[in-house]
Amino acid sequence: MDLSYSWERLYRAVRSAIWSDRPLQQRLLDCYLELHTLDYEGRLPRHLRSRFKEMIDTWTREPGTTSGEWSVRATLEKMGDDEARRWLDELLKLYTSVVESKASAEAYLRKRRIRDEQNAANLTRLQTEQWKATEVFNEIYQLLEDLAPVWYSEELRKRAKKALLLLGRDPAIPIARHR
């Protein structure tokens, strides 16, 4: 889950609350305007979703008194300063949790990318080593075929051919064609 959008929305809300000199309830309204479009189900970690939903639900629990008034404005106008401070504190905690989750996810992705790069380098190294070992084995096979020592039985010859085929080499092709 990419938390960049959630981080940005919460950052804007927290920043506007900190830098504003307006009453606390108006600061919460500004925060609401930054956050109400945030799709918390798809943009927040699971462990933060219920806190976010509770916050938005609490800020909008009162119906608007006139047809044009928002429920959030009606709710926040009735809210006392202590409760508003608690919600601003909760907003900061929520932001901090998203920052921590984002940093954790980014660290995980960095570690995973490094591990993938190391695995790719190890695979390349192993493939190179296998190729070198196959070349040596192919040279030995060709020597045995050329020299045909007495102890080199048909059974050993079949095993060596089978091993070369498993390594991706055709024993019928001379060494010079593989280089």
Q: What can you see in these coordinates?
A:
The protein is mainly alpha-helical and 179 residues long. The protein folds into 2 domains: 4-113, no CATH class; 116-177. It has 7 helices and no strands. The protein has helices at 4-19, 24-35, 40-43, 46-59, 71-78, 81-147, 154-166. Helix 2 packs antiparallel against helix 5 (71-78), helix 4 runs antiparallel to helix 6 (81-147) and helix 6 (81-147) runs antiparallel to helix 7. The protein is rod-shaped, with a radius of gyration of 34 Å. It starts with a helix and ends in a 13-residue tail after the last helix. The mean pLDDT is 89.
Task: Give the helix/strand layout.
Layout: H1 4-19, H2 24-35, H3 40-43, H4 46-59, H5 71-78, H6 81-147, H7 154-166
Essential attributes:
179 residues; rod-shaped; 2 domains; mainly alpha
